[in-house]
Amino acid sequence: MEAHSSTRTIFQNISSIDHRYSISEAAVFDALVPWISEEASVGACVRAEIALVVAHLKVRGQLNDSLRKNLEHATEIISPEEVYAEEEKTRHNIRALVNVIKKKVPSEVAPLVHLGATSVDILDTSLSYRMKGVTLAVVLPELKKLEVLLCNFAEKEAETPQVGRTHGQHAVPITVGFAVAEYISRLGKSILEIERLAGNLKGKLAGAVGAYNATSMIVKDPEELERIYLAELGLEPSEHSTQLVEPEYLLRLLLEFNTAFGVIANLADDLRNLQRSEIGELREGFGADQVGSSTMPQKRNPWNSEHVKSLWKAFMPRVMTFFMDQISEHQRDLSNSASQRFIADYVAGFSLAVSRMSGVIEGLGADHERLLANLRGNTGIPGGVLAEPAYILLAESGVSDAHEVIRKITLAAEKEKLSFAQALSRESDVLARIGNKMLELGLISASGEVSKAALAWFEKPEQYCGLAVKKAKTLSAKYRELMETKNV
């Protein structure tokens, strides 16, 4: 393969990440390039090889500022093009890299390049270096931004009443902030776990089978040489290595990425559904020149939420490959050599989805009038979402079959097209029991007729939202503080 000297237009690239998303999500794409591009991959391998030379010099007491400066310069001047050109001769990527590096470092240290290492001492270590770097520099900041935006939105809408939904049916009242707090809690815990797992990625300098055979011929303490080498890259040794670093360190990080991805896709689904014409409780921001349909001018599609879900569909199944890369025959085979290269695609797709969701939340609006109308006038029985407190209050008054009593009232309301309060008003004994219990609990005032006050309460379902407001505010405050105090 001849190294290309001309620049290729991005529209000749095959992956949509490298053309469509490099334009639409330029900031995220540019932040990812130093960590997961092929240039970054080659550069990290160079950095790992130079770290090994530094480690050898430290052990021998021969490292000085001039040598370190010259070695660091080598990491800046070696290009992927020349390494790829050399690989055409060697047919081996790391040996090609070594050959190029030897020509760029001072001659007196050239024999130390790759000394005692096998290819995967460099490849696995450099992958851990890059994955830790991209997680700390790009993935976590993007996740943190989204989490804080969710906290802000939940706090703003903490007291905004909304009908709760289970099985796609109206349930009991909550608030918009409470609904969003679910995702704050789920995503927040995942963010903290991602940070922990990124800090736990490991490297190695244990040789061809992991038993330190080669380095045992060079130094008295091969494990100390390994620690010095990895410290140069901000890593620690794997507890046990074959030719590979134990794969579970990286696997667990990628699985937690996928857990967070699933939370965000779930959020996207909920936001998309709440923007349906017949629901209309939330709405994504829409630009003045934005078009929703090529033929229907009135359309304002929730396309960003749908886009996030679509990215999840494209990248979530990659987890199967991550699991399959956990398996390697004996001390190593090459069955992960191609598949592992596509980790970069996954990290990019995930980061792009997080960024897109942040854009959704930044422009998200709540239609307070529609929210209240949906809550009060739910399909079937207006005010029927308050059947639960009616049943609870009636049971508390001593009626053992309270659930059945209230269920029959809801059936009558539905059949006769009455509101729940209207149907309840016809059951004077039931209403009196409920009213007295409400008076006892301080839900209604002692002044005026008890039954009338009780009926007035049942006409305003927004009053029955339990701890929704408290939970929304508490979780928003908790995770905002965690995002600010944790090193993300």
UniProtKB/TrEMBL annotation:
Keyword Lyase attached: yes
Domain Adenylosuccinate lyase C-terminal: 382-455
Gene Ontology cellular component annotations, sorted alphabetically: cytosol
SMART domains found in the cross-reference section: ADSL_C (SM00998)
Keyword Lyase: yes
Gene Ontology BP terms: 'de novo' AMP biosynthetic process; IMP biosynthetic process
Function field: Catalyzes two reactions in de novo purine nucleotide biosynthesis. Catalyzes the breakdown of 5-aminoimidazole- (N-succinylocarboxamide) ribotide (SAICAR or 2-[5-amino-1-(5-phospho-beta-D-ribosyl)imidazole-4-carboxamido]succinate) to 5-aminoimidazole-4-carboxamide ribotide (AICAR or 5-amino-1-(5-phospho-beta-D-ribosyl)imidazole-4-carboxamide) and fumarate, and of adenylosuccinate (ADS or N(6)-(1,2-dicarboxyethyl)-AMP) to adenosine monophosphate (AMP) and fumarate.
Protein name as annotated: Putative adenylosuccinate lyase
Keywords of this entry: Lyase, Purine biosynthesis
Pfam hit, one: ASL_C
Organism: Leadbettera azotonutricia (strain ATCC BAA-888 / DSM 13862 / ZAS-9) (Treponema azotonutricium)
Record GO terms (molecular function): (S)-2-(5-amino-1-(5-phospho-D-ribosyl)imidazole-4-carboxamido) succinate lyase (fumarate-forming) activity; N6-(1,2-dicarboxyethyl)AMP AMP-lyase (fumarate-forming) activity
Organism domain of life: Bacteria
Record-linked PROSITE patterns: FUMARATE_LYASES (PS00163)
